[in-house]
Amino acid sequence: MTKPLQKTEYERKSVYINVSLSPILKSELEQLVNQGYFSNVSDAVRYAIHDMLAKFRAEGKLKPKKPPETAEERVKNATYAGSKEVEVD
User: What is the pLDDT of residues 6-25, one digit of tens each?
Assistant: First the structure.
């Protein structure tokens, strides 16, 4: 039996964004969910974003960010995000 991976505090926190999709993309994502590839549309979108970012990192176009090491660093680097909307075509 394999031990489940433990996520760091940095990986556990989620932020919510609004994404606009065409009806076709939404339908295709729902189809993947219905076929059991993902548990919900959010998981499918997260997977796609992780995959895209991994490709950009591999090509050297995006440098990976390291989470702050200490609580003091996290507080020092914290900014108020507010409510932001992101539109994706």
Answer: 665 556 678 889 999 999 99
